[in-house]
Design goal:
By secondary structure, the protein is of the alpha/beta class. The protein contains 22 helices and 20 strands. The protein has four domains: 215 residues, Rossmann fold (3-Layer(aba) Sandwich), CATH 3.40.50.1820; 54 residues, no CATH class; 248 residues, Alpha/Beta hydrolase fold, catalytic domain (Rossmann fold, 3-Layer(aba) Sandwich), CATH 3.40.50; 78 residues. Helices cover 40% and strands 17% of the residues. The strands form three sheets. It has a ten-stranded mixed sheet, sandwiched between helices.
Length: 671
């Protein structure tokens, strides 16, 4: 059973972290227990410890919605703390930075128990007697169930709550089928003919895992599905709380009947329909927006709720309480992998602003190198589909020390003064990476440092190596840009279409339906022509750079020359791409004839059947195997197992591209 190590803050706090003698921060990372599991969370203390007798526990939604809403959860927590309410938000078991759950576990039961444990932990740390829960979507359903099991919980803020487990499951299943249809349509379009019916990857995984359901890369076990199907909040015999604020979504409001039902059962209910749900919960993290109207409504409602109760005595600040947030999490040996017990520790480092990360290492100390995992897009340090957590724990079991970190303004790191938050390409990112390197160097002097990331994380790792930061290896997964531009976010779609569009339209040219659409004037010829013109511009740029290399003229932003210089300094580069990712074609075009000269210190691997973020669990498992093979040495290049839907290309032989003749230009445009 995992346990919290019996150490003090002084001997567990890493170099560069906030010292124990510093004033208690308003936001404190912590670990606490729920049944036999350890959970990670954040405690927001009101400024000045006002002694309000009300605490708030935030219950996250499920899966992709939790990833998107991370920024908004922080905003709700800060707003509650501003009106004197102590706040704890946390990761359920098997999610975020918390301890894993067995794949067959009943998540609904476990997560409900986690909510109760969080409420009791908030009481223990702050002395509050009354607890309000704030639940988003499935988190609201969990909150309603937890309230019935904990007398201290007497209020609930429900944001677009899931009222019927059976209806929610149908919604998830429809999401899976719709995404499968989109993938099939895209593949059919690329081939230029209707494709044969295919089994969606997520449904195939579900069938192979005993009835589990995978949605956007997140799994619900068969036991969870069975339990969810029996839950209906409209059938409750008594109100779980005495005070209810229901903030419904403006696009598809559906919660009013439940608010009315709770009123009939004796609760004081406040029902409001407010904008901002879709921007908070259904938009990828880089474009997500905080629902200001909902935050303001929750703040004012909590202000009134806090004013209605007695004031709580401010709990004594004992040395043990001060040390608690910094005590590490002990993770047991993995029965299915390398048998090493792990220690995970939350760290705050860097001078200004405070950067946040989680360090994972073997209990006996790392014997191999150090690895830093960077944010992918605007996602927090857990990564898309919790990929960074899985990688960190696997590699730590193999002897590495791994830091998964948030750049300033992302995830759980602070935002620099005068800078906007949620910026994927912050100007001072390399200062943050330098601070992370110093942190690990202080922990393991002389160790080799590997920087890694997906998409924008790969870009930051690559540029950090180019700038000469003290790294020995970079791991670059689906890197889509090598020279970031300020207009990248608005113009990236155009770039991606210029790379992949010609092959799509070449496939459609073999379809009679596409020709009929063109002859009827229903095709956007101007748009198609623009794609080919942008592709031609890319090819022309490639041709110009090849000519410059042949004449020993170094043009600005020459990827091939940059890579050669970096590798000559002793940095090893590992490129891993989904085969259909536009970044792979861009690497070939921009590096050009330099590629053959990189073979000694550069590896390229391609993975079939995966999307840009390796959403499906099968794709992530294969990516994990390839990365581990490259980082830790796994023998010969792996191939797909018998019956496996995905495949990986062994390390590619790097050959010189053909001369950039007109025929080659036309071929590139049609690929």
């Amino acid at each position: 059973m995992p346990a919290v190590a019996n150490q003090t803050a002084a001997d567990t706090r890493p170099a560069h972290a906030t010292p124990p003698s510093a004033p208690a921060p308003r936001r404190e990372p912590l670990y606490f227990s729920s049944e036999a599991r350890s959970l990670f969370g954040w405690l927001h203390r009101p400024a000045g410890d006002t002694g309000a007798n009300l605490g708030l526990v935030i219950c996250r939604p499920f899966g992709f919605e939790a990833l998107c809403s991370h920024r908004s959860v922080r905003a709700f927590a800060a707003a509650a703390a501003d009106v004197g309410v102590a706040v704890l938000y946390f990761d359920y078991a098997g999610t975020g930075d918390s301890e894993d759950l067995p794949p067959q576990a009943d998540q609904l039961r476990a997560w409900t128990a986690d909510v109760v444990a969080a409420a009791r932990e908030l009481q223990r740390r702050t002395g509050v007697e009354r607890i309000c829960l704030l639940g988003f979507r499935l988190g609201a359903l969990l909150a309603a169930q937890a309230a019935a099991a904990c007398e201290a919980i007497d209020a609930l803020i429900a944001v677009a709550p899931v009222l019927s487990g059976a209806s929610y499951l149908r919604e998830l299943q429809m999401t899976v089928l719709a995404q499968a249809a989109q993938r099939a349509a895209a593949a059919s379009s690329a081939r230029g003919a209707p494709g044969a019916p295919c089994v969606p990857a997520t449904l195939a995984v579900a069938a192979a895992s005993g009835g589990a359901l995978e949605v956007n890369g997140y799994m619900l076990s068969a036991a969870t599905i069975a339990a969810l199907a029996q839950v209906d909040l409209m059938r409750l015999a008594r109100a779980p709380v005495s005070e209810l604020l229901l903030l419904d979504r403006a696009d598809v409001p559906a919660g009013e009947p439940w608010a009315q039902a709770m009123t009939r059962l004796g609760a004081r209910s406040d029902y409001r329909v407010l904008p901002g749900f879709a921007e908070m919960m259904m938009t990828t993290a880089v474009y997500t927006l905080v629902p200001e109207a909902m935050v303001a409504a929750a703040r004012e409602w909590l202000r009134g709720l806090a004013g209605n109760g007695a004031r709580a005595p401010v709990p004594a600040r004992t040395p043990a309480a001060e040390a608690a947030p910094w005590m590490p999490l002990a993770l047991p040996a993995d029965a299915h992998g390398p048998a090493a017990e792990l220690i995970e520790q939350a760290v705050l480092f860097g001078a200004d602003p405070a950067l946040f990360g989680i360090i994972t290492e073997p209990r006996g100390g790392a014997r191999a190198g150090a690895i830093i995992l960077l944010n992918d897009g605007a996602n927090p340090h857990v990564g898309s589909n919790r990929l960074a957590v899985s990688l960190a724990r696997l590699w730590a079991r193999l002897g590495h020390v791994v830091l998964r970190m948030d750049l300033a303004g992302l995830g759980d790191s602070a935002t620099r003064a005068g800078c906007a938050s949620n910026q994927v390409f912050p100007a001072a990112a390399f200062d943050d990476i330098r601070a992370a390197i110093e942190l690990l160097r202080a922990r393991r002097p002389g160790c080799d440092i590997t920087l890694g990331g997906l998409c924008s994380g790969a870009y930051h790792a690559y540029r950090a190596a180019q700038l000469g930061l003290a790294v020995q290896q970079v791991v670059l997964v689906n890197q889509r840009d090598f020279f970031w531009r300020a207009d990248l976010n608005t113009n990236y779609l155009r770039f991606e279409l210029a790379i992949s569009g010609p092959s799509i339209y070449r496939g459609r040219a073999r379809s009679a339906a596409s020709w009929k659409k063109l002859l009827r004037g229903q095709a956007n010829v101007r748009h198609i022509a623009g794609i080919y013109l942008r592709r031609l511009a890319l090819v022309a740029d490639t041709t110009l750079r090849e000519a410059g290399r042949a004449l020993h003229i170094h043009l600005p932003h020459d990827l091939g020359v940059e890579l050669e210089r970096m590798l000559r300094r002793g940095v090893r580069a590992i490129f891993i791409y989904s085969r259909d990712d536009a970044g792979w074609q861009l690497l070939q075009m921009q590096a050009g004839s330099s590629l053959p000269r990189l073979v000694e210190r550069c590896r390229v691997r391609l993975i079939d059947g995966s999307d840009h973020t390796f959403t499906g669990s099968a794709a992530r498992a294969l990516l994990q195997r390839v990365l581990t093979e490259e980082l830790c040495g796994g023998g010969p290049a792996i191939a797909a197992e018998e019956g496996e839907a995905l495949a990986v290309t062994p390390a590619l032989p790097i050959a010189a591209p053909a001369p950039a003749s007109p025929a080659v230009v036309l071929r590139l445009m049609g690929e």
